């Protein structure tokens, strides 16, 4: 066997195999031919692929946006509710402070001075019966009115009443023979009020009754129960003769 034949036999297995060659760039571009067979221009082979978002991508984006919007709305609602609650609490504290201040001033300025109601009936210097929790004549005030009533006296008749779930303060224009004057509603959601009065002997009793029209309790305790709130207890001395 000759050398040429031997080489042919050795290279015969590789003669039928095809070697993969790189695809030329020109094959990635399609050519549009006119009716005459001439090319009018080259168009990228992948130009048929649509640009933009798929439906799933749009739905996911809308879902995320909805979650963010809901979270922002929840935060705004919580912030608004917190602000309203803080405003109501601040107003409640201010009302309570004004009430306790005025109540203690009234009790501290209580005078041993009897009065008369609108029918002319005598009233003790300090009285408490029925809806009246505390009735007294206090000093240290100036009556603001018209005519002869303006600045005519530095004493005033005061009553604290509990009726129709309201705790109110009544100020009378005159000490004697005057109808109930201006009503100032302190609380309008009161469920119950209990009172205690300290006697001269140091004992406490739930009602105030005395034969001496000039006698006053040494101190007064008022426990107010309002709707949805814990009971509020206020203790204050009465008059200048208070002793511990």
From TrEMBL:
Q: Where in the cell is it found?
A: Cell inner membrane
Coiled coil location: none
What is the membrane topology here? Single-pass membrane protein
* Entry's Gene Ontology cellular component terms: plasma membrane; type II protein secretion system complex
Signal peptide range in chain numbering:
none
Q: Tell me the GO BP annotations in alphabetical order.
A: protein secretion by the type II secretion system
Transmembrane residue ranges: 58-80
Which keywords fit this entry according to its UniProt record? Answer: Cell inner membrane, Cell membrane, Membrane, Methylation, Transmembrane, Transmembrane helix
For this protein, the record's SUPFAM superfamilies field holds:
Pili subunits
> One Pfam family this chain carries?
N_methyl
Family to which the UniProt record says this protein belongs: Belongs to the GSP J family.
Q: What protein name applies here?
A: Type II secretion system protein J
Organism listed in the record: Alterisphingorhabdus coralli
Q: Which gene encodes it?
A: gspJ
